[in-house]
TrEMBL record:
Keywords: Transferase. This is Citrate synthase. One of its GO terms (biological process) is tricarboxylic acid cycle. GO terms for molecular function: citrate synthase activity.
Length: 379
């Protein structure tokens, strides 16, 4: 056997451990997810986004005073510098993820500690970005719809204020709670593609803003954050529950993935999905539009044969319909994921910085043998 034949290639880094992490535990076979040791189910039911973000960034649940101080820091950052609003205005026709990526990149120019990669400064910048990211999404939504950018309401929670600013309407307590839960469920998920991207960037000792800009870029793809938008499009295309089986059959016959299903780590249902499913079921009933839940469940039924192979619903199968029923435009679904993920990206960067190392795997060359360069006139 030649030396080359012994080399194992892990395409997509499937199943490869590249680091230790004290933040998120995932058991893909059992469908378990914990942040800092706490079950995602407890956090989804009893915590708030603010408390969960504190837990992720500080490692422990906060006391009342600690949570109040953390909340005050978040609220103090609910402002964008005027030039950032001008950037948003200039590119208001673009997809909200392009606007978000560009505005986060531009924010580096207005952050006094951009180049301070100490752990404390990185955490503080992450807290500010946790507020600035929803401000960017909301400002863009207002500007592109010809509305004045709403003033943040300091009496409202992170989730409720975000809803207020994107819709221009004060949310109902149930609407705010659903968004809060959604942000908790999206807050962190180990070394997913966007967080890994953030680690690669900060691994070069670049800044948090550079890492987060790259993470937003990675999140925007349909194989990662874009699924919720695609699921809504799929539900609209299917139109009636009776047509779901034929839709799934046609997709599979074409060798295409059914969006909102499958996961690199989970071999059973994504544990976050059940909280979103409950939300869609209740909301679509309450809003007199039970059809949407029925369509999604019909797709789940049609996908049952694939569950045997570990293909089940993921976190974003149900979330798009929740946003849609709240009157949120489908191109905001990925940005909403980003709003939730800022603490996760930040904590992954902090872990990387704690014991930093350049991330640089290898590719096995299988191109042409050495050959002679010929002048262009002889080719
Ligand atoms: C928040 C998130 O990022 S969650 C993911 C969101 N993305 C989506 O919902 C998009 C649809 N899903 C997918 O494209 C994929 O499932 C991914 C990209 C998420 C994961 O891909 P992988 O890790 O490469 O998939 P995995 O190795 O588990 O696939 C195993 C088998 O299941 C199949 N499979 C995976 N996902 C799906 C799907 N959505 N529909 C149908 N079949 C699927 C694969 O084709 C593969 O079959 P094969 O062995 O016959 O080739
Ligand atoms: O972990 C992953 O690969 C994708 C995912 O579910 C997430 O980022 O929330």
């Amino acid at each position: 056997m030649s030396a080359e034949e012994k080399i194992e290639i892990h395409r997509g880094l499937k199943g490869v451990y590249f680091e230790r992490s004290g933040t998120t535990f995932i058991d893909g076979k059992a469908g378990e997810l914990r942040y800092r040791g706490y079950s995602i189910h407890d956090l989804a039911q009893h915590s708030s986004f603010e408390e969960t973000a504190y837990l992720l960034l500080h490692g422990e649940l906060p006391s009342t005073a600690e949570l109040a101080a953390f909340d005050a820091k978040l609220k103090a950052a609910r402002r964008l510098p005027a030039p950032i609003l001008a950037v948003i205005e200039t590119m208001k026709q673009a997809h909200p993820m392009d606007v978000l990526r560009t505005a986060v990149s531009a924010l580096a120019g207005f952050e006094p500690d951009t180049y301070d990669n100490s752990i404390d400064a990185t955490r503080d910048k992450g807290i500010r970005l946790a507020s600035q990211v929803p401000m960017i999404v909301a400002a863009h939504e207002a500007i592109r719809n010809g509305r004045a950018v709403p003033e943040p309401d300091m009496a409202l929670s992170h989730a409720a204020n975000f809803l207020w600013m994107i819709t221009g309407r004060k949310p109902s307590p149930q609407g705010a709670q659903l968004m809060d839960r959604d942000l908790i469920l999206h807050a962190e998920h180990g070394s997913n593609a966007s967080s890994f991207t953030a680690r690669v960037v900060i691994g070069t000792e670049a800044t948090l803003h550079a890492a987060m800009t790259a993470a937003i870029a990675a999140l925007s793809g349909p194989a990662h954050g874009g699924a919720a938008e695609d699921v809504m499009r799929m539900a609209q295309e299917i139109g009636e529950p009776e047509r779901a089986a034929a839709y799934v059959k046609a997709k599979r016959a074409a060798g295409e993935a059914v969006t909102g299903f499958g996961h690199r780590v989970y071999r059973t249902e994504d544990p976050r999905a059940r909280h979103m499913r409950d939300g869609v079921e209740t909301l679509s009933r309450e809003m007199g539009e039970p059809k949407w839940f029925a369509i999604l469940q019909a797709v789940v039924d049609a996908m049952k044969p694939y569950a045997r192979f570990g293909v089940n619903v993921n976190v974003d199968f149900y979330s798009g319909v929740i946003y849609y029923l709240n009157g949120i435009s489908p191109d905001l679904f990925v940005p909403i994921f980003a709003v939730g993920r800022v603490p996760g990206w930040t904590v992954q960067c902090i872990e990387q910085l704690h014991n930093n190392i350049l991330i640089r795997p290898l590719t096995l060359y299988d191109g042409p043998e050495p050959r002679e360069y010929r002048d262009i006139s002889q080719r």
